[in-house]
Design a protein that fits this description.
The chain is mainly α. Helix content is 74%, strand content 1%.
Length: 273
Amino acid sequence: MLTNNWLTDAIMYIYALSLLFFVSDAAYGNRNGKRIGTGLLVFVWVLQTGFLVDLLVRRFAVPEVTLHDYVFFVSWLLVSASFAVNRIVRAELLVLFVNVVGFAVLGLNLMERSGREIALAPSEVARRLLVLHVSLITVAFALLTVSAVCGAMYLFLNYRLKKKKWGSVMNRMPSLEAIDKYAFRSGLFGVPLLLLALSTGTAALLVDGHYGKLLDEKVLLSFVAGAVYIFYLLRRWIGRDDAGRCAIWNLVGYVLLVLDFFANSLSSFHRWL
């Protein structure tokens, strides 16, 4: 077993098998592979949904969050987002890459240490604020993951076109204009949610009187990431930078978010790993 939970192991194995079929379709145009991969991905989504419903029923009143619970929620959102993307824009490679990130997030269960539950807050007001904070940051991360994947796809396709290196994989990608539009719109929804999440998290710390934690490295890194995303949206909105440069700023903001999650050794709280 990969983890100590049979359901997590089953989902990871099925998820990995689903991705292999999607890769087969992307590399060799195997349409049967896409259908099988989609069916397995639907099964993964059903299992994750069942887990989350059971979690809400059993632990709704428990003021703690574990890494296992959190990554399941994030992965479930990314799988759900991939279905929405496939339904709306029919961008098959975007669906594949979003699910690769979803699988990587689910793989964080391998890094979980026992006894690392995070108590949300002692007071009722702060607890509710932190529940809202966790919910908002999770949805924001899912949207910004889609935006970052689009940014990376834009840079890749733009580079290949400039070098006049056309390949079969590029035939499966949307146009540069479409990719840039998807990245911007995802960010346009994700960044306000991120800022709201930072606001509610800050309010929860102030309510509990933890003023010193506002200078915690993870908190500061989160605000830097938020500032980078605001800069990206403004530059993209007013058209000061070309789409390639904006895509780089988009990826910088996302990398800061990922680094913020792993900055446990520097932080005095949110210590999951």
